[in-house]
Design a protein that fits this description.
Length: 94
């Protein structure tokens, strides 16, 4: 009876009568609470951490900057041209 109250499943017209049935019902009620709690925490985590996934990782930025410094002047110019190309092509499309 205490498990029914804590899980808020109510009393209803049908209830287990045997000891094993009551144990199974209690286990199922607790598993249900666990599943709802996991689902709720996953959804909350998705919304809280959704914005931070798009931020740059500082180690990756450091690696790219280190590699960029090793490029020759011609390679640096080509790199800049390749980066600016998508920006210019997106402005042309209507």
């Amino acid at each position: 009876m205490v498990v029914c109250n804590s899980t808020t499943v109510g009393y209803g017209d049908l209830s287990p009568e045997t000891g094993i049935g009551r144990i199974i019902a209690c286990v199922l009620m607790l598993i249900g609470i666990g599943l709802i709690g996991s689902l709720t925490s996953s959804i909350t985590s998705f919304f809280i951490n959704g914005e931070t996934k798009h931020k740059c990782d500082s180690e990756k930025v450091d690696m790219v900057l280190t590699l960029y410094e090793k490029l020759s002047d011609e390679e640096k110019q080509l790199f800049v041209t390749c980066i600016e190309k998508p920006k210019n092509s997106s402005n042309v499309q209507s």
